[in-house]
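Annotated sample (chain length 220).
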Amino acid sequence: MIKKLIIILTISVCGCSSIPFRHSDYLSFDGIDPQTLRLNFSEELPQEFELLNSAIFRYSYLHFSALGVVRVDTFKKSLDLAGFNHLGVMFFELSLDSEGKVDCKYALPEFTKHKDFASFVLNDIKKIYFDRVPPQSAVVKRERRKVVFRDSLKDTFTEYVFAGEGRFLAEKNYYEKHRKVWSVFYYEYTPKDGKIYPEGILLKHYKYGYKLIIRLKEIR
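Output written by the structure step:
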């Protein structure tokens, strides 16, 4: 499915593979209490927000670029997403309600040929914006320049890595049978109205071999 979608709607193809974000400066975590770190980060995250992003989806040598508006309610676990090209032509409009129901309100015919398209896209957005705070019960591993939370000791778990400037969430890694399935990397947090937003996000899906690169354009 992934390859067919990208081939159908490829806008740009290029050989560049670098990530256009700055890596955070690694600060010492000596004397930092992990639970205080977790709670402070939770308080600085917005519960509800609307963003304008640019995005590049990379699969092998194929690139699909778009703009997107996403509205997220992390408390209700609901979101709305609209994707369109740089001329304003809409690709799709999708939503996920608090009960987990997916609604494809509009999509170009090339997308609707794939019945699981809406779920596929929304699942990636969920990985990025939901569940960014580790549970209080998470196992903690402290290192000099990072703190790692692991939500389970079983072979399927999520790992939260806090590192860099601000000591915010820098990585979220999901494992199945101790093999890394996907990761989300957060770059260059910026403040607005007492809350913080990553200016750059990279989602890497190791199982399916694709990347989603998101750059924040506007906080609405």
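Annotation: The first helix runs from residue 2 to 8.
Annotation: The chain has one domain: 2-13+24-219.
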